[in-house]
Design brief:
The protein has 319 residues and is an alpha+beta fold. The protein is built from eight helices and seven strands; from the N terminus they run ββαβααββββααααα. The chain has helices spanning 17-20, 39-46, 53-60, 115-124, 131-163, 169-201, 210-276, 291-312; strands at 3-8, 11-15, 29-35, 67-71, 74-81, 94-101, 104-109. The model has no long low-confidence stretch (mean pLDDT 85).
């Protein structure tokens, strides 16, 4: 649902969208939060001649990445952050697009970002009084929400590294793959978001004051740190994956060696039992009462001898 927020004469209020779009921009802030899933809202954006055509197209685009582009006296910003319905989102981070100029900010979301409620609460608390405040607080809230999620991925990777030699190979490999996939998905947007925030903080816009630039630089610094952590996680995941692959190969080699040893032990025994089991005349000691136990003893001695040779040759490590 599209919403409208207005800050004028020291008071913050929420009003109907239709009423807000008729207000003159003579100071303060008019913030129009548009739900991109509404046909009427998208048509309204297309009809706004005072918004550059390139900005209108970018605000309604389906596939976006973080960016900050100066166009005249305004700026087009696209930020990515955690959404309220991650299971229904095709991307790891949902997009919020902004067109900001003096006295007005138009934001478009096709899915609900978690940062939205935080920013609305700050607006009603009187902390957001102009477009610069809104952009900087939204960037700050986005970083605040994403930072713990990235830290949790790092903790999961730490746990995988601790148990890599003792835990189940399959279970550990599955956890590492999940972390690596999520880290790659996050970094795809976090790295360019840092550049977008830095570009916005350095923009020559008279409605962006020094306090706003400081918050934007802080959000950019946190995005840079998260991008470095995500890159480190991807490399750590690759190393753990290689170690798990080596461990799995070692387990397979050990089991194959054990099977080979058992087969070699039983090979001469199979020959003896097969030879004596032929249904022909002339089998030695076939009618002797001690013959069975004699053959059994010979087979046992032969098996012990072969096993002892394997131990001496260090195919099997003796204790």
């Amino acid at each position: 649902m599209s919403r409208a927020f207005v800050f004028r004469e020291g008071a913050a209020s929420e009003m109907s969208f239709d009423e807000a779009i008729t207000l003159p921009r003579n100071g303060g802030l008019i913030w129009l939060q548009i739900d991109g899933r509404e046909d009427a809202a998208r048509n309204w954006i297309r009809d706004q001649a005072d918004i550059p055509h390139i900005a209108r197209e970018a605000m309604l685009a389906q596939e976006t990445r973080p960016r900050a582009t100066l166009i005249g006296g305004g700026t087009l910003i696209n930020l990515r952050g955690l959404g309220t319905t991650p299971d229904d989102d095709p991307d790891a981070l949902v997009s919020t697009r902004f067109w900001a100029d003096r006295g007005r900010v138009i934001s478009v979301s096709f899915r609900t970002p978690k940062a939205l409620d935080i920013v609305i609460d700050r607006f009603h608390a009187g902390e957001i009084v102009d477009p610069g405040d809104l952009l900087s607080r939204f960037a700050e809230a986005t970083s605040d929400l994403l930072d713990p999620d990235v830290a949790e991925l790092g903790d999961t990777m730490d746990d995988c590294e601790v148990v890599v030699d003792s835990a189940s190979i399959l279970a550990t490999r599955r956890r590492v793959t999940e972390v690596r996939s999520k880290a790659i998905s996050y970094r795809r947007f976090v790295a360019p978001q840092r550049q977008a925030l830095e570009r916005l903080a350095a923009a020559e816009l008279d409605w962006l004051d020094e306090d706003d630039r400081m918050h934007l630089r802080e959000a950019a610094d946190r995005a840079a740190r998260m991008a470095e952590e995500l890159e480190a996680m991807r490399e750590r995941a690759a190393l753990i994956h290689e170690e798990l692959t080596d461990r799995r190969a070692e387990v397979i080699d050990t089991r194959a060696l054990l099977i080979s040893i058992v087969a070699l032990i039983f090979l001469p025994l199979t020959f003896i039992t097969g030879l004596l089991g032929m249904n022909v005349e002339g089998i030695p000691y076939a009618h002797k009462p001690w013959a069975f136990w004699g053959v059994t003893g010979v087979c046992l001695a032969l098996a012990i001898g072969v096993l002892g040779w394997f131990v001496r040759a260090q195919w099997i490590r003796g204790k």
